[in-house]
Amino acid sequence: MATGPTHAMSGLAAWAAVTALADTHAIGQLSPKTWVVGATLSAGAALLPDIDHPSSTVAATFGAISKGFSAGISGFSGFLYRLTRTKRDSDREGTHRGFTHTVVFAVLAGLITTAIVQTSEGSALGVLMFFFAGLAVRGLMHTWSSRQDALLIAVTSLLLTVACWAWAGDQPTDAAAFGLAVMIGCVAHFIGDAITEQGCPMLWPVPLGGKTWYPVAPPKKLRMRTGGAVELAIIGPGLTLAAAALTCVVLYRLGVAPWLAGLDLPPGLMAWIEASP
């Protein structure tokens, strides 16, 4: 489950699921504006871990700048892998599916996002939105590779950011929610990679089976090939439907999608949708 579109939709689906199931918790009572910004961050963050691969489409999102950053992250990831691996860990470079594919990285990314929003009092949020929107758009349009395509992706990301900003009006500055959105997007990426053949070392540096870079994964029979028929025909479309449905539920609860009340839905389902989180 490692293609761009699937990752992007997994981030949105995960954010929608967490906020829909949060009940009385604060994360389930966000304003519509904050929720939409969080959805943008989470969808983009679901692509962020692949920044450790200089040849990935994500690394090429912002041209030479993102490629240079990717090369640096890849080198650091390889160094950290060699430094902390045990004799039981596989003999690989560790530059991809290394540090950026760990919960430690997800927490760090979320904390940095929170700190940026807090210290800038919201003024940097537009930059963050552009960055994560760019990752999400790049993931969805992963087959676009020319310079013209890169420019189109940048323009699309900018338009999305401006449109969301114009709709939001006053800058939403719920820093903790935005940091959590980035964490959720990253973890969604890890789970997606974990069900592929290679697995994901998301629990580093916790030693499991004598390995600090233990590849978390289900039994081999339940794993799937990246970009294979199962992902393209089942996982990807399923996540897209789940993301759309959960987004409608959340927006209805937030007063943005009142038209859901007019649908002929089962009473039990409608009662859950109408439940005030």
Automatic annotation (TrEMBL):
Keyword annotations from UniProtKB, A to Z: Hydrolase, Membrane, Transmembrane, Transmembrane helix
Domain of life: Bacteria
UniProt keyword Transmembrane, yes or no: yes
Keyword Transmembrane helix belongs to the record: yes
Alphabetized InterPro entries for the sequence: YdjM-like
One MF annotation (Gene Ontology) recorded for this entry: hydrolase activity
Species per Swiss-Prot/TrEMBL record: Saccharopolyspora karakumensis
Annotated TM spans: 58-79, 99-117, 123-141, 150-169, 175-195, 229-252
Coiled-coil spans in chain: none
PANTHER family xref list: INNER MEMBRANE PROTEIN YBCI-RELATED
Protein name per its UniProtKB record: Metal-dependent hydrolase
Pfam families: YdjM
